[in-house]
């Protein structure tokens, strides 16, 4: 489950090539999940689920949401009726989320119904030599140092995305290109960069695909959040280039990036994804700048999907797991007191043994701890474990070609189904809330 991706060091002293020819500069992303599927924004009907009788669609609902999610449901109701405003959703997780198939499916469906406010938070995973979502592409001309929060004892602090990249190369560049999804355009008019600021950091010029400078990011400029710089563009952009600029060669010697946000000027849903291969609750708790940068997102709803890694190896400590959940959620609420929380349980999975892949009873214990925490603190939760079919159901998902060979991850279609199920459960709760308002 834990995919090796330690600090990446520069491996070559060759001079970097400019990204004006980025099409010829291929950076291979780690194929962690073994597939690259374009998520589809279509909703599966009940007939489709009849093919998978082991999926408990009768249990597919958000539990304990009547009061805990009322604030979010009301904001969505106002958005739907007035076509004004925004609802900010942040989905935090592990490798099940980093690929952005599950979360990407939920994003698309919510934006098709309530409006598209932009692609949201992204990270240049390819630059960090990791697997990247299909809705955008990043390319660089040099090798960057990189770290994810799983390696908390290694150099480089971690910020909003759970990953960090850094370079000391004065000619380093990153190209960022968004890709439209079915019925959704992700061109952007606002670009937000989470980065290290101060006189020792390079300035960054921002250029369009015609190589014209359309903005500059100065790390000495002050902002409300000490890690944030914002740029607005006069026209929607589909591709931009970030380029190091040594304005003061005696002082400036590095660029460190924690994440980026792509937004447009429309009302609607902004659905940020924060996913890290191998991540656990404790890894976000130990991420130095995560909470400080999280406050900038002004989240109305935070969805947390973790627990698989904690329960994967054996020796699962249910009480410690509960405390780690509490630490993260308490911190998130302190950073943004108005944030609603939706917890999801991990799905069923198998683990390695001398006999091969066997059922993992600890995943059920992780599920129980998450539900207990939600009920103890009046939080909403979605029980993916039981919706999947409960203990041992991963074998049926594997037979139906909905899981990967490791019986821990899922196939592209399996993640799409999970995204559809989560959306349908959430929409069911929203429609129930809306129905009560009409009485």
What is the makeup of the main sheet? 6 strands, mixed
Structural class: alpha+beta
Strand segment count:
19
Tertiary shape: globular
What is the CATH fold-level name of the largest domain? Rossmann fold
Tell me the strand percentage band: 15-25%
- Number of helical elements: 11
User: What's the helix-strand series?
Assistant: HEHEHHEEEEEEEEEEEEHHEHEEEHEHHH
Mean of pLDDT? 90
What is the strand and helix layout of this fold?
Layout: H1 46-49, E1 62-63, H2 70-82, E2 86-93, H3 95-98, H4 102-114, E3 120-122, E4 136-140, E5 145-148, E6 163-167, E7 173-178, E8 188-195, E9 203-207, E10 213-217, E11 228-237, E12 239-245, E13 255-263, E14 268-275, H5 281-285, H6 290-294, E15 301-305, H7 318-335, E16 340-344, E17 350-353, E18 356-359, H8 362-376, E19 380-382, H9 384-388, H10 394-399, H11 412-438
Parallel strand pairs: 2-14, 2-15, 15-16, 16-19
Antiparallel strand pairs: 1-19, 3-13, 4-7, 5-6, 6-13, 7-12, 8-11, 8-13, 9-10, 9-12, 17-18
Helix pairs in contact: 2-11, 4-11, 7-8
């Amino acid at each position: 489950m834990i995919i090796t991706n330690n600090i990446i060091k520069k491996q070559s002293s060759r001079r970097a090539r400019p990204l004006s020819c980025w099409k010829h500069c291929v950076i291979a992303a780690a194929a962690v999940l073994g597939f690259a599927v374009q998520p589809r924004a279509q909703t599966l009907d009940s007939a489709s689920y009849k093919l998978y009788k082991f999926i408990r669609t009768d249990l597919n609902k958000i539990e304990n949401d009547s009061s805990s999610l009322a604030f979010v449901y009301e904001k969505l109701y106002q958005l739907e009726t007035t076509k004004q405003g925004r609802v900010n959703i942040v989905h935090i997780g592990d490798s099940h989320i980093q690929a952005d198939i599950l979360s990407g499916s939920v994003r698309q469906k919510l934006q098709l119904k309530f409006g598209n406010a932009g692609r949201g938070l992204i990270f240049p995973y390819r630059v960090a030599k990791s697997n990247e979502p299909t809705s955008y592409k990043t390319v660089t001309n040099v090798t960057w140092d990189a770290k994810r929060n799983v390696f908390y004892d290694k150099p480089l602090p971690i910020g909003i995305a759970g990953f960090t990249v850094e370079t000391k190369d004065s000619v380093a560049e990153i190209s960022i290109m968004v890709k439209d999804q079915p019925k959704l355009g992700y061109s952007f008019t606002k670009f937000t960069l989470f980065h290290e600021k101060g006189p020792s950091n390079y300035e960054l010029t921002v250029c369009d695909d015609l190589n014209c400078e359309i903005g500059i990011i100065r790390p000495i400029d002050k902002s409300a959040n000490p890690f944030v710089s914002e740029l607005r563009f006069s026209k929607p952009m589909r591709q931009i280039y970030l380029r190091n600029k040594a304005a003061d060669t005696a002082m400036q010697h590095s660029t460190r990036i924690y994440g980026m946000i792509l937004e447009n000027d429309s009302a609607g849903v902004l659905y940020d994804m924060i996913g890290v291969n191998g991540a656990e609750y404790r890894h976000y708790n130990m991420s130095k700048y995560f909470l400080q940068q999280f406050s900038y997102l002004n989240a109305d709803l935070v969805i947390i999907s973790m627990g698989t890694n904690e329960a994967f190896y054996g020796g699962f400590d249910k009480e410690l797991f509960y405390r780690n959940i509490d630490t993260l959620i308490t911190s998130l609420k302190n950073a943004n007191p108005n944030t609603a929380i939706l917890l999801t349980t991990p799905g069923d999975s198998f683990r390695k043994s001398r006999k091969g892949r066997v059922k993992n009873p600890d995943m059920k214990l992780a599920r129980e701890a998450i539900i207990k925490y939600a009920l103890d603190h009046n939080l909403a939760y979605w029980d993916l474990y039981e919706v999947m079919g409960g203990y041992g159901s991963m074998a049926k998902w594997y037979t139906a070609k909905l899981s990967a060979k490791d019986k821990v991850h899922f196939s592209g279609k399996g993640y799409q189904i999970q995204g559809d199920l989560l959306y349908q459960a959430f929409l069911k709760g929203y429609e129930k809330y809306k129905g009560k308002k009409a009485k």
